């Protein structure tokens, strides 16, 4: 008996959100999307009941931008569990260990969907428990423990319950948006967080936001409250490019926007013609960023989980050997690795991590270069590998795509009409384009992090935001076309 | 064409979590309004508890 029969009764009974019957009008879709977004922002401002004042330090550290949610709030877990569960699924699916045919078999589709949900619940528990019970991530309030008479452990369980509910809410909110709204909830939560930071980075004013923004800095420079110094001296150039001028950050942010929007339009087009209807022609685009930027989240989440493990080890294990990791507490109260294996595995978050000539890091240049190379290696190679897995599990590979083209009655002109032949042609492009695209995105993310971005949104966060927004735009355009011509719904198979 | 969550022509733009059309009828379903209502009530409850404590 395979695992399928054993697991079927559980996996097919995972609760889900109802599917709409028939077409949902575009306005209604926007309303659902907007409503969920408001709920999301509300919940990121609800702090956990039983949390000691002072808050504790963020378990996700600098990865918070891409994992959404908020430190100390009921959405503490953010999309972390969903991403981690997805990594497991991608690895299992990419190595073809699941044996599920999600393209044609409805039973396998139901199983896949159930497995996906079950894994998210498991990951919510697995990441939630150490956050509450280990380390100083979420300190429990001693006053409340006394007041309720349940001890600190009791308060911790209460807190764990809240972040677990928050994690599951994220999953269901994503499902509501996927079925009733526009785009996906996860994409929306990422761009919501990054956009908020970007706006803070541009328009922030002291007193309202934590750091003054780009425009406020320039206002103070022009008024004369801050001095740049002589622009031709080395200190003057640094002031202009980094703080407080931030010209370099502005440049990186704009460059990433431009590169992603341009790369979205770079594609190899495979001509198609209809087998029976003469003159009906089409093209199948193999985009440079074929697997989208989403596999990048998976690589970053892998790094985030490794760093999370390092922080737990550091807080729980007093005799941690120096080769594994030595930690120093930074100004923000978060312990950051300064040596050992965890230092080299930590990605470069900002210019402060590598510009040794500024004195922002005390590590010797040789160590810094080592860390940069490890980060580049993980992102470029990891980006390529996860892109391949992504294409396989998302049914975007040559075999699945050939079947889809065949089913739509199209063929490649000049070739026999058979899925095998189409697959052969697609195999010339899809794997190569996928790997190149994945590696390119990895390279961009590392470079953006090294140069810095406005609002410190991180390279991956910015890449994700731009490409998700682009996809969202395409989807909205398609929706509107369907609203205008009800006939189009049949074409798009609604 | 009924190939999964594929509504955008041939290119499937799957999110991190994929949902298929063919769901098992045994699975209990929740109304999306219930999800939103639960989220709001949960948030308000925690806020009230925080205010009382």
Short description, anyone?
Chain A is mainly alpha-helical. Helices cover about 60% and strands about 5% of the residues of chain A.
Report how far the terminal alpha carbons of chain B are from each other.
56 Å
| Strands in their spatial order, largest beta sheet of chain A | 3-2-6
Q: What integer value in Å does the Rg of chain A equal?
A: 25 Å
**Strand element count of chain B:** 1
Q: Total number of helical segments of chain A? A: 19
Order of helices and strands of chain A: HEHHHHHHHHHHEEHEEHHHEHHHH
Organism (chain A): Haloglomus irregulare
Pfam families (chain A): Plug_translocon, SecY
Subcellular location (chain A): Cell membrane; Endomembrane system; Membrane
Domain Translocon Sec61/SecY plug (chain A): 38-72
Structure description:
The complex is a heterodimer of chains A (494) and B (53). Chain A has 19 helices and six strands. Chain A has 494 residues and is mostly helical. Chain A folds into two domains: 27-192, Orthogonal Bundle (Preprotein translocase SecY subunit), CATH 1.10.3370; 246-494, Preprotein translocase SecY subunit, CATH 1.10.3370. In chain A, strand 4 (326-329) and strand 5 (335-339) form a beta hairpin. In chain A, helix 2 (26-43) crosses helix 8 (185-203). Chain B is elongated, with a radius of gyration of 18 Å. Chain B has one domain (3-52). Chain B starts with 28 loop residues before the first strand and ends with a helix. Chains A and B meet through strand 1, helix 2, helix 4, helix 5 and helix 6 of A and strand 1 and helix 1 of B. Chain B: Its main location: membrane. Chain B: It is found in: Cell membrane. Chain B: This is Preprotein translocase subunit SecG. Chain B: Keywords: Cell membrane, Membrane, Protein transport, Translocation, Transmembrane, Transmembrane helix, Transport.
